[in-house]
Each structure stands twice: as C-alpha cells, then as structure tokens.
Write a structure and sequence with these properties.
Elements lengths: L19 E3 L6 E3 L22 E4 L11 H20 L5 E7 L4 H10 L10 H18 L6 E4 L3 H16 L3 E11 L4 E3 L4 E3 L5 E3 L7 E10 L5 H9 L7 E2 L1 H11 L12 E2 L1 E3 L8 E2 L2 E6 L1 H6 L1 H4 L9 H4 L5 E5 L3 H16 L3 H4 L4 H7 L8 E4 L2 E3 L2 E2 L10 H8 L1 H12 L6 E3 L1 H22 L2 H13 L6 E2 L2 H22 L3 H22 L8 H21 L5 H10 L9 H5 L19
Parallel strand pairs: 3-4, 3-16, 4-5, 11-17, 16-17, 18-20
Antiparallel strand pairs: 1-2, 2-21, 6-7, 6-10, 8-9, 10-12, 13-15, 14-15, 18-19
Helix pairs in contact: 1-14, 5-6, 5-12, 6-10, 13-14, 14-15, 14-18, 15-18, 16-19, 17-18, 17-19, 18-19, 19-20
GO cellular component, one term: mitochondrion
Keywords: Aminoacyl-tRNA synthetase, ATP-binding, Ligase, Nucleotide-binding, Protein biosynthesis
Pfam family, one: Anticodon_3
Length: 600
C-alpha cells in the first residue's frame, strides 16, 4: 500500500498601477504616477487564521522498492506549493509533511525476500524499513524538497496516535467485530466490493480503480461503520460547486460517484474492515486489547497526517496546523483520502454512533471538532510511451539519474510544467525534457548573459549619462510593453497558483520571458547604431524583468532563482514577493552591480 501517488479565499488589496500621458515630444511616452482605479495589481492573502500554520501533505510512500519518477513528481508538487505559500505569506509558518508507510504484507514479504536478518536469524523487517526509508529521505534531499516533517508509521508517536484513535472510535460505537468477505488485493492492500472488480479475458479478477489483481477472501475482522457517514460526505462534496473540495473538479465528481451507486443493484457506501488476523499479517500495529489482530494498513497510514502534527493534541489542533490546508494525492488513492479519512475524522470528533442517525448531515460536519482537510489536489499519473511504469516492463524512470543528468531544477521545472495541470495522465519523455531544458536555458539563462554583457553594460553607462529626464520616459515602445508585462506578472502568477493551475503559472512567466527576448533581439542594443539611451533603457527594463521572473520562479527552481537574484545584486528585501508586487517606474533607474553568470 502506498499513500503515494486549501483552497484559500482571497481578498484583493488595491495597488498603484501607472497610467501614462503623452509628452510634448512624439518620440517617447512619459509615465506619471496616476493611480488608475479600474486596473490594480491583485494581492492575495488567506482569509483563514494566519496564526494557524499552513499545513500541506504528500502521500507517504511505501518503501518496498526504490523510488521512481512518480514519487519525485508528488514531492515536487508539494514543495512548489509549500515554497509558494512561504513566499506570499512570509509571516505564516508552513508545515510540510512527507514520509514513508512501513507496515503491511508487502513490506513483510519484501523484507523476507531481501534476506536481511537480525542476530537471532529472524527477518529484520525494521532494519529493511530503515534502509529504504532513508532512500526516500535522500530523494527528498536531492530534489531540494523543503519538508518540515519526515514521518514514518513505525515511529512511536504514530503508534500512540493510532491507538488513541482506535480506542476513541471503539468507545463511541464505530467499531464492531464481524465477518468480512470480499475481493482482496495484496498489491493495494485493501478489499474491494464486487462492483469495484471486473474479470479479464483470461479469467483474472482485477480492481477497476487500480488494475491490481484481486482474490476472494473471507475473514473475521474488526469493522468500521463507514456507511454511517455517507450522507454527511455527500453534503460535504456537494456544498460548494464553485470551489470543490477535490481539485480538479472532475475528481470531486468521481468521489460523489463513489458515494452514490450507479444503480439500485449496487450497494451504497459499506462498512470496511480495519483489521487483519495476526496469523496473516504480523508486521503492523497490534489492535489495542486484542493481540490476535493487526490494524489494517490503510487505517494506520491515513492517521499519519494527524500524528505528523502531534496528535493527540493537548490543545487546539489549529495550533499544530490541523486541518490540513492542502493534501496532494494520486488519483488511484482518492477513495482512501476523500472517503475513508474524512469518515474517520467525523467519527473521531463528532456525535457518537447512537446519536448519529438523528443528526442531519450538515450538523454532523459542524459538530466535528477535528476539521476535515480543506482541499485535495488529485493528480493523474506519469506514463512512459503511454504505458504505465512497470519494473517488469523495464520502463521505470529513475529520478536520481534524471536529476544527475539534467540538473535538479531542470527536472523540477519539467515535472511542474508538463505535469502541472493534473487532469490527464502525462507521458515522460527524455526528448521532451531536453526540449524544455533548452527553452528555459535560452529564455532565462542566455537572456541574462545577453543583457549583462560587457558591451551592453558599457554602452548603457554612456546612455545613462546622456539622459536628461532621469530615465522616466520610455524611448522605445517594446521596452514600455515589456515593463507593463513584467509588473503585471506577479499578479498573474498568484492568480494561477491560488487556482492550483501550476503549469499556467509557469506559462505566464515564460510568456514574459519570450517577450523580453523578442524585445532585446528587435532593439539590438549591442549594435553600434543603437542610441546609447535606448541601450540603457533596454538593459534596465531587462534587469527589472529578470528580477520579477526570478522571484516568481522561486517555488519551482529555487537554486536557479537564487543564483539569478544574486547575480542581479539584489538585497534580501528586494527578493521578496511584496517587493515585486510594489514595483514602480522608479525601479528602472536604480543602479546595481550585475554579474553575467551562467544559471545552468
């Protein structure tokens, strides 16, 4: 089993933009500080309590094998959103959880196959987990993932949380013991109902959701009254059609479909098994007060998001960061995060089971003292040549090798640029990666080298001395157009990021960089025929554009962004989000020592 694979309302504060009026000369346009009420840079801020840490999570990975590019993709998405939140809300603490899920039958079997043993000759499952968990931690470090918590389900604090939740649900009447039969997948480590299974041409039964092989199984297990929360969950996922709890909205519809059977012949939401006989599964948390049963691995793993911020809390959960503002998951584990986890949370902090029937769905949600996660960002999968990655096929992409070959920031950029729309599966292509790498190097890296060259710098110095109006006037229309585009860029990037359109945010930056490159090519400031004053204006506008682009790219390519901003000679205060939102015409006349460095 692997857990691999908030939206905030915003208020808009007015900010000055610049209108312009023609000067007596027809050769240029002069800008004046005339605020235009109909056109503002939009500044966004969370309407939630800023004293509550912003809490973002990725799935915890199942370390029964080495990481693949899908693991890195999820980590990068989480890191982009975490870094973005720190950028736009610098005074707010951001908590970012990643980790490994180390219990279950697959781990137990993989450890046995590894041959790793303890001194007494027994299989060393814990040692096996320690080694592979470190591999995933190293992947995060290699990819410059800014997590604040690396959580493991084998940690003592997680054991305490799982036992606390189990006892609480049991006391409130949400756990009972009963016979459970259904289709069980060892790969997914979960049961499926008959409508969730299909038979292939060769007679094999597989899960419709994941394609994993399933077998009929019958056990006497502990059950969770999941069915009791069907109406409350339908209300939760139907209550806001403009900002769905699951993004993209197509997956919100999928969740509602899971809660509402397509026909009367199919069962609705049914109770689920939350334990396995100890005789079948020994590697896991023992059910409190019953040593013959092991806590079901999904029940155990989903609670990592609570234990990762210190649950059970001595005070309010908000002080620790709960509820999660953003949870990033793959589409194959949507059921567990959109249905199982919210139901467990409602049972944990809402009415007792005996009181639930008489409580309207909306009141069930309101009564829960432990809130539900605010937003589920559900992404599609990466394929290779339109085929699912598979060790047996040999098409698994090694993330470490990719970063060593192309560079960490280039791979991060590619994953966010190509995989940042989430709605459909995307295909990994080294050729495509190479093309995106060349584009970014050209638009950003080469652009810096061009405008910071010795020839342009020298000519710009002459032009600066020749200016009579302090450089407030635009001498060339392309520079004016670029200035307008650059000063609008932070607002556009922020709009896309708040809407979770990660790829679109990068496209906004690329569009401005394309305009910038076109402007410098058309103006040709290196030419002897170019007026030195225009050279100065072109260089200054370009440096302002690079500053804005560098700040906007901080969440995506953090190391490259920092090298760029350092090369521009900026102070720490000039590298902030607030500073680029507040840029005005005077910024074009500021002098700095700029270094022509290679960014890639």
């Amino acid at each position: 089993m692997s857990l691999a694979s908030v939206h905030h309302r915003v208020r808009r504060l007015p900010s000055l933009r610049f209108s312009y009026r023609p000067c007596t000369s027809t050769k240029h346009t002069k800008w004046s500080l005339l605020p235009t009420p109909t056109s503002t840079i939009r500044r966004w801020s969370s309407t939630s309590d800023p004293s509550k840490p912003y809490y973002i999570t990725t799935p915890i990975f199942y370390p029964n094998a080495k990481p693949h590019i899908g693991h890195l993709y999820t980590l990068v998405l989480g890191d982009v959103l975490a870094r973005y939140r720190r950028l736009v809300e610098p005074q707010r603490e951001v908590k970012f959880l990643v980790g490994t899920d180390e219990h279950g039958l697959k781990i137990q079997q993989a450890a046995a196959k590894s041959g790793k043993t303890r001194e007494d000759g027994a299989v060393d499952v814990q040692g096996f987990c320690d080694e592979l968990s470190e591999v995933f931690k190293n992947l995060s470090k290699s990819a410059n993932i800014s997590y604040t918590t690396f959580a493991r389900t084998t940690q003592d604090r997680h054991l305490v949380a799982v036992e606390h939740v189990w006892r609480t649900l049991n006391e409130k009447g949400f756990i009972y013991k009963g016979e459970y039969e259904g289709w069980y997948s060892v790969t997914d480590e979960c049961f499926y109902t008959t409508p969730q299974v299909t038979e292939t041409a060769d007679g094999t039964h597989i899960s419709k959701e994941t394609g994993s092989t399933v077998e009929w199984s019958k056990e006497y297990n502990y059950m969770f009254r999941l069915s009791a929360f069907r109406d409350a969950l339908v209300h939760h996922y139907s209550s806001n059609k403009d900002v769905t709890a699951v993004f993209p909205s197509q997956y919100n519809s999928v969740v509602l479909g899971m809660l509402s059977p397509a026909s009367t012949d199919e069962p609705g939401l049914v109770d689920i098994s939350i334990s396995r006989p100890r005789s079948r599964l020994t590697w896991g948390i023992t059910v409190p007060e019953d040593p013959e049963h092991t806590v079901y691995v999904w029940f155990d793993a989903l609670l990592i998001y609570l234990s990762g911020v210190g649950y059970p809390w001595s005070g309010a959960g908000a002080q620790a960061g709960w509820p999660a503002d953003m949870q990033i998951i793959g589409k194959d584990i949507l059921r567990f995060h959109a249905i199982y986890l919210p139901a467990i949370l409602l049972a944990l902090s809402g009415p007792k089971y005996s009181e639930l029937v008489a409580t309207p769905p909306s009141k069930v949600l309101e009564a829960a003292s432990i809130g539900l996660p605010k937003r589920l960002l559900t992404h599609a999968h990466w394929t290779v040549s339109q085929a699912k990655m598979s060790k047996s096929v040999g098409n698994v992409v090694d993330p470490i090798h990719s970063m060593e070959t192309y560079g960490v920031d280039i791979v991060r950029y590619y994953l966010a640029r190509v995989g940042g729309r989430f709605r459909d599966d995307v295909d990994w292509s080294f050729e495509q990666l190479e093309n995106h790498s060349k584009q970014l190097q050209s638009l950003l890296g080469n652009y810096l080298l061009r405008v910071a060259s010795a020839r342009i710098t020298a000519s710009a110095a002459v032009g600066r001395d020749q200016l009579q109006d302090g450089g407030e006037a635009f001498l060339h229309s392309l520079n004016e157009e670029l200035f307008q585009a650059a000063t609008k860029l932070p607002g556009k990037v922020q709009s896309s990021m708040e809407a979770l359109e990660v790829a679109d945010a990068l496209v906004e930056v690329l569009d401005v960089l394309k305009l910038a490159n076109k402007a410098v090519t058309d103006i040709a400031p290196w030419s002897k025929a170019c007026d030195p004053r225009v050279v100065y204006e072109t260089r200054q506008t370009a440096l302002l554009t690079l500053r804005v682009a560098g700040v906007c790219l901080k969440p995506f390519v953090p190391e490259t962004s920092e090298r760029l901003l350092e090369a521009l000679g900026l102070s720490e205060a000039e590298k902030t989000w607030e500073s680029v939102l507040a840029l005005d015409g005077s910024e074009r006349t500021k002098e700095r020592e700029v270094k022509a460095v290679r960014l890639f």
